[in-house]
Design brief:
Layout: E1 5-10, H1 16-23, E2 28-34, E3 38-40, E4 45-47, H2 50-58, E5 62-64, H3 70-78, E6 83-87, E7 105-109, H4 121-127, E8 132-139, E9 149-156, H5 163-187, H6 218-227, E10 234-238, E11 241-250, E12 262-265, E13 268-271, E14 278-285, E15 291-292, H7 293-298
């Protein structure tokens, strides 16, 4: 097997296992491309991406850019890589950079393509109530997530799994798949097949996408909460104050408040939906720390609102 010269593009924590696996393998990661440092926390401290942090620890030269154009494109082309590898970088690779590496670029995508093409495949799959997900390594082409597939695996979605937990798991398994595909390309054994199936799209989620609609059936409500946790986060509003919902389950065989109405039944804090109520487990009230839903409810004034406000729109 020939050792390949790689350029790796990625930014968030989900890309870290892939970079670590490739750096530990038989190929040379000649450069890492990642997004620029961004303000984090209340003080807005400029912080490198998780991928940039690992690249620094590994001593790999890093190109920081939010767009792969101009000087950034020239710097990547100058690496003279045999293969470009991209995992959740957060930007598009366009020509002539797309064709610069000898073998082009491959992408690790956290879905069973062609289902959930786009920026938020894990979140969208949970919100939609999918039972299965997985990851796909495919040849990058100008069209969004449309290239031929080198490899794919499937994975069940746990009934209580959040998007954050699922992505952590897929990132680790996906790194193994990605390494195997890179090895196959190096040895000349890689074969890519066209995507088969119905195309669905997974556009990036906005803050408003996290607002819970308690007029929906309970399973839709809980799937939304799981799908937007930890980002952008699920919330509702009471008396104009935002209440983040960190964890909730369907409360079967419990009394049914009207949709959007809160009620306490014993130790349960319930919110009505179009079907069964939802039991709130952990919430994060505005200006306070995350807490048990029962503690939050008992600490509210006796005359506090018990019906959610009208939904906001973008």
């Amino acid at each position: 097997m020939t050792s390949l010269r790689l350029v790796f593009a990625g930014s968030p924590a989900a890309a870290v296992p892939s970079l670590a696996a490739l750096a530990a393998g038989p190929h040379e990661v000649a450069a890492v491309v990642t997004r620029e440092d961004s303000p984090q926390g209340r003080r807005g401290t400029l912080t490198p991406t998780p991928v940039a942090t690992l690249a620094d620890e590994l001593g790999i030269p890093t190109i920081k850019a939010n767009r792969l154009a101009g000087d950034a494109s020239d710097a990547i082309t100058a690496v003279q890589a045999d293969l470009g590898v991209i995992v959740a970088y957060g930007g598009l690779v366009r020509e002539p950079l797309l064709s610069a590496p000898k073998h082009g670029w491959i992408n690790l995508h956290f879905s069973l393509l062609p289902r959930w093409r786009g920026a938020a495949p894990v979140q969208r799959s949970i919100i939609a109530g999918d039972d299965l997900t997985g990851a796909t390594v495919f040849q990058l082409v100008p069209e969004l997530d449309a290239g031929d597939v080198f490899g794919q695996f499937t994975q069940s979605i746990g009934s209580h799994e959040t998007a954050g937990h699922l992505l952590e798991s897929l990132a680790v398994s996906g790194a193994d798949l990605l390494s195997a595909v890179v090895d196959a390309i190096a040895s000349g054994d890689a074969r890519a097949e066209p995507q088969v199936g119905d195309v669905t799209l997974a556009p990036k989620l906005t803050l408003v996408d996290g607002q819970v609609d308690f007029g929906r059936p309970a399973h839709d409500v809980v799937n939304l909460i799981r799908g937007v946790t930890p980002e952008p986060g699920a919330f509702t509003t009471l008396d104009g104050a935002r209440l983040k919902i960190l964890d909730a389950v369907i409360a079967r065989d419990a009394p049914r408040p009207a949709p959007g109405h809160f009620a306490q039944e014993g130790k349960l804090i319930l919110v009505g939906t179009a079907t069964d109520p939802v039991q709130l487990l952990t919430v994060h009230p505005a200006g306070r720390k995350a807490m048990n839903a029962g503690d939050w409810w008992r600490g509210r004034p006796a005359d506090a609102a018990t019906v959610v406000d009208e939904r906001v729109s973008e």
